[in-house]
């Protein structure tokens, strides 16, 4: 991983897309976990129609309110986040309201990881295993 992919949206080349029934609550949770806001666009009513948030260790997600109709997968997504500190990311996610699905453990294939569900049911895994590393 280079510094470019960890700090600039222009360097990210793959953006998983999600929708949230409550985008405001989701943004608070994402911020608590460690995501940083790159851009959030709203319509005249304040509904989040498109947002781009970065994972500081590389990558990003796009999302919007489930009511926009562009992506309708609220609660149905799964994302794996590579992090040098899976224990910290996992703890922040749980502290911000996530439900533990798989406790942190050392994996037989390398690394350490665990999984949670966010408030809408999306599955988030945090791990130090980096494929190809």
UniProtKB/TrEMBL annotation:
Residues 12-129 form the VOC domain. SUPFAM superfamilies: Glyoxalase/Bleomycin resistance protein/Dihydroxybiphenyl dioxygenase (SSF54593). It comes from the Bacteria. PANTHER family: BNAUNNG04460D PROTEIN-RELATED, VOC DOMAIN-CONTAINING PROTEIN. This is Putative glyoxalase superfamily protein PhnB.
